[in-house]
Predict the structure.
Amino acid sequence: MTDITSLILDDHERFRRAFADLDDLDGPDELARAWEPLADLLDLHAAAEEAVFYPELIQRGADAEDETLDAVGDHNEIRDAVAETRRHPAGSAAWLAAVRQARTANSEHMAEEEDDALADFRQHADPGLREELGRKFLAFKAEHEGGKGIDTGDLDPERYVEEQERKAGKTPPDDGSLGIGGLKGER
Ligand SMILES: [Fe+2]
Ligand SMILES: [Fe+2]
């Protein structure tokens, strides 16, 4: 079973567990050992969704533009908090605050993604596509294991949506605006 929406949920569950496990740990070495793979997976998961999932949601979701704008904005917040943890020694007050920020941003994002984007996709993508994308999602994660070759910088949400719409053959209006929201009335 490689349904992409199910694989995304699996990662989300891994995040919840891993953040909960951190609560039981103490001392910089223990915390760093537990946090580093979680931090890498947070970055990798967002990049994999942006590479494989959201470009397809854009093409068929009922409310895909808003869901994608929200998601990329949330991914930026999570990436920023993860990057902040890397600027401080594990276990320090600043590190703990950044981990807390990553956790809160990620928890809020997962709930929205699960209730909106994933639900929308299940309703509008056929099972064959969901399986095919699941295989691509796994391949992307394997290729970039540990965050190798991943760009962890912020993405401009509107530019990302515009780029995906252009690739999908949705042309922006003649007035040169991004067309965000402009396609809604056509659906
Ligand atoms: Fe996710
Ligand atoms: Fe996400």
User: Anything to note?
Assistant: The chain is about 70% helix and 0% strand. The pocket of fe (ii) ion (ligand 1) is lined by residues 8, 12, 45, 49, 110, 113 (CB under 6 Å). The radius of gyration is 17 Å. Confidence is low (pLDDT under 50) at residues 181-187.
